[in-house]
Design a protein that fits this description.
There is one protein chain. By secondary structure, this protein is α+β, with helices and mostly antiparallel strands. It has a single domain, classed as Gcn5-related N-acetyltransferase (GNAT) (Aminopeptidase, 3-Layer(aba) Sandwich), CATH 3.40.630.30. Helices cover 36% and strands 24% of the residues. α1 crosses α2. The longest helix is centred in the N-terminal third of the chain and has 14 residues. The termini are far apart.
C-alpha cells in the first residue's frame, strides 16, 4: 500500500534512508546523522509543504521525501525530492508523490534527482522520462566522495 507516512513509521523510514545513504556514491562517505534525519523528517510530516510517502508492504519498503518552497527568483514553487528509495513499488510511490505535487498551484517546477550511478540510475532516468520529466543538465560534486 502506498500512503502518507505517520510518526509511527519514523524509525523504519530512517532504516530505509540509511540503506539508501550507503548505496549512494554521492553521500556514502559522509557520516549519516540519524538524529538530524529524524528531526527533519518529523518536521515534514506535519508541514503542508512537505511530503513523506511510503510503500507499506510487510513493513516500510520504500520512502519518498520531498519539499515545496517558494522560488527565490520567480513567482511560483519549486517542488523537489530529497530522498527517493524503494525496494519495490517505486513507480506507485512516485505517482502518489506526483499527485501531491500536482495539488500546488501553477506555476511550479518539479525536480527529481538521482544521486547514484550505474544501471539503477539509467532505469530511474527512464522511469522519470516515462512520467513526463525531461533530463536537464548534469550533477557535479566536489568534496568527500
Amino acid at each position: 500500500m502506498i500512503r502518507h507516512a505517520c510518526a509511527q513509521d519514523l524509525e523504519e523510514i530512517l532504516d530505509i534512508a540509511t540503506a539508501a545513504h550507503t548505496l549512494s556514491p554521492t553521500y556514502q562517505n559522509l557520516p549519516p546523522n540519524r538524529d538530524k534525519a529524524r528531526e527533519s523528517i518529523s518536521a515534514l510530516l506535519t508541514n503542508p509543504m512537505g511530503y513523506v510517502g511510503v510503500v507499506d508492504s510487510d513493513g516500510i519498503q520504500g520512502v519518498l521525501v520531498a519539499v515545496a518552497a517558494e522560488s527565490w527568483a520567480h513567482d511560483g514553487l519549486i517542488v523537489s525530492d530529497l530522498l527517493f528509495y524503494a525496494r519495490k513499488n517505486g513507480r506507485s510511490l512516485l505517482s502518489h508523490y506526483l499527485d501531491w505535487a500536482d495539488g500546488f498551484p501553477q506555476p511550479k517546477i518539479n525536480l527529481l534527482g538521482i544521486s547514484f550511478g550505474g544501471v539503477k540510475a539509467e532505469r530511474t532516468e527512464q522511469l522519470y522520462q516515462r512520467l513526463g520529466f525531461t533530463k536537464v543538465g548534469a550533477q557535479f560534486i566536489r568534496g568527500d566522495v
